[in-house]
UniProtKB/TrEMBL annotation:
Gene3D superfamilies on file: NAD(P)-binding Rossmann-like Domain
Domain of life: Bacteria
Xref: InterPro entries: KR_dom (IPR057326), NAD(P)-bd_dom_sf (IPR036291), Peroxisomal_Beta-Oxidation (IPR051687), Sc_DH/Rdtase_CS (IPR020904), SDR_fam (IPR002347)
Family assignment from sequence similarity: Belongs to the short-chain dehydrogenases/reductases (SDR) family.
SMART domains listed in its UniProt record: PKS_KR (SM00822)
Protein name (record): 3-oxoacyl-[acyl-carrier protein] reductase
Residues in Ketoreductase domain copies: 6-194
Annotated organism of origin: Saccharopolyspora hordei
EC number: 1.1.1.100
Keyword vocabulary terms for this entry: Oxidoreductase
A GO MF label: 3-oxoacyl-[acyl-carrier-protein] reductase (NADPH) activity
Length: 303
């Protein structure tokens, strides 16, 4: 998995999953542009990567504005001569139930996750097309965007939107040799600590205790480092034929999310009135109605 000829940008990489992605890419030889809003975190990440023999530099700026995206790409080109990989990982949480969520709560999450992904990918693609050698776009989604999650209207919407953009970009960029994929990780981080039943496991991991097998396998939750290998794989030549996919990774589990598909279909000449739908619903669609939210094994839920 030799990435020594690659240059990557990883947004939100001062800590957590983003730092694990940046370190993993550097470990395989890629030069990395680290990004964070916190100068100390960004500088520490660069120091860790360079101390391990890697190449890295930092851009301290909030993801969302087009100016940040431009600065990230300009820094990659000025520092390392080119750009090959864009990993859009930056994110924040403002969790509240719908009736308590403010406009500011909603807008902040959408701006960083959704707009930040859009602006950074757009800028990277402009550079990829100029270079004429293809490229790799790796966008970080979430199971919350696939299934929904209580208290995360803003986050779930943003993550679902990211996967929607990935599918569209995969079609638009295929002829240019640019692959676009989403990674939906589950890892014990400060962000997953906000989920009440996971908080004790995150704290236990900090104390050096291993996560129980049921979490690593059934929930697919592990350390940030557990979720990093798929990023190097998607950045490599080995993944040149993979695009438009949403890949789940965490703990001991690697999985592929399905694209939305019609599951049950009925036809009626002349169309469907409200009364017709009511009469046919239970008979035709009742058993096909799908659940919402993640489904977890009983043994990991609070009692």
């Amino acid at each position: 998995m030799d990435l020594s000829n690659k240059v990557a940008i990883v947004t939100g990489s001062g800590r957590g999953l983003g730092l694990a992605y940046a370190q993993e890419l550097a470990r395989h030889g890629a030069a990395v542009v680290v990004n964070d809003v916190d100068r100390d975190s960004a500088d520490a990440a660069v120091a860790e990567i360079t101390a391990a023999g890697g190449r890295a530099t930092a851009v301290v700026a909030p993801v969302g504005p087009a100016a940040t995206a431009q600065a990230l790409v300009d820094t990659a080109v000025e520092s390392f001569g080119r750009l090959d990989v864009m990993v859009t990982n930056a994110g924040i949480l403002r969790d509240k139930v719908l009736w308590k969520m403010t406009d500011a709560d909603f807008d902040a999450v959408i701006d960083v996750h959704l707009r930040g992904t859009f602006t950074c990918v757009r800028e990277a693609v402009l550079r990829f097309r100029e270079q004429g050698e293809g490229g790799r776009i790796i966008c970080v989604g979430s199971p919350a965007g696939q299934r929904g999650n209580f208290g995360q209207t803003n986050y779930s919407a943003a993550k679902a939107g990211i996967v929607g953009m990935v599918r569209t970009w995969a079609m638009e960029l295929q002829r240019a040799g640019i692959t676009v994929n989403a990674v939906c990780p589950v890892a014990a981080t400060a962000m997953t600590e906000t989920i009440p039943f996971l908080a004790p496991h995150v704290e236990a991991m900090r104390r050096g205790e291993p996560l129980p097998p049921v979490l690593r396998r059934e929930v697919g939750m592990g350390t940030p480092e557990d979720a990093a290998g798929v990023v190097s794989f998607l950045a490599s030549d080995a993944a040149s034929g993979i695009t438009g996919q949403a890949i789940s990774i965490g703990g001991d589990r690697l999985a592929l999310w399905s694209h939305p598909q019609l599951t049950t279909t009925a036809f009626q000449d002349g169309g469907w009135s409200a009364e017709d739908i009511a009469a046919a619903w239970e008979r035709t669609f009742g058993d096909a109605v799908e659940s919402v939210g993640e489904e977890f094994p009983e043994e990991v839920l609070p009692r």
